[in-house]
Design goal:
Radius of gyration: 15 Å
Helix content: 25-40%
CATH superfamily: Gcn5-related N-acetyltransferase (GNAT)
CATH architecture: 3-Layer(aba) Sandwich
Strand content: 25-35%
Number of strands: 7
Length: 155
């Protein structure tokens, strides 16, 4: 697969289960770079269905030959999720989705990344995001130190 083989499209409510399943798989594969997820797959499915039904959020999926390979979830000023199928990291899917998010939010956006997730931090820095704030993690569910990064926008 090459990034040019990807179809990027708006997520539909019926995509919630597949997106949540990809999220679950990505979180499991990311340990120890990310803390273990604290929700079950069933909880993730319900949460994602709620987000995709909420007009304040946009879900976008990357498909290769009809198969879900990554997704992004954005709100007006946040990139809440960017996850790729674990066996496809480094293949351009994340870059394609992040470029899409930049085009959707030309005035910029922020995101949170776990401090322990050095690979994601490098990825975001390569794509022009900067670190703005570090926390001890007391405000996130996992209670793991995190970093707020931002893309300042194209202006």
């Amino acid at each position: 697969m090459t990034p040019t083989d990807l179809l990027l499209r708006r997520a539909e409510p019926q995509d919630a289960e597949a997106i949540a399943d990809l999220y679950t798989a990505a979180r499991v594969a990311a340990v120890p770079h990310m803390p273990p997820a604290i929700h079950t797959n069933a909880e993730d499915r319900a949460w994602m269905a709620g987000r995709l039904a909420n007009p304040d959020y946009e879900g976008w999926v990357a498909e290769d030959d009809g198969e879900l390979v990554g997704y992004a979830l954005v709100s007006p000023v946040w990139l809440d999720h960017l996850f790729i199928r674990p066996d496809l990291t480094g293949g351009g899917v994340g870059s394609a989705l992040l470029d899409l998010v930049k085009s959707l939010r030309p005035d910029g956006f922020s995101l949170w990344v776990f401090e322990s997730n050095a690979g994601a931090r490098r990825f975001y820095r390569r794509h022009g995001l900067v670190e703005l704030e570090r926390t001890d993690g007391s405000a996130n569910e996992e209670k793991s130190p995190d970093i707020r990064m931002a893309w300042p926008g194209s202006g």
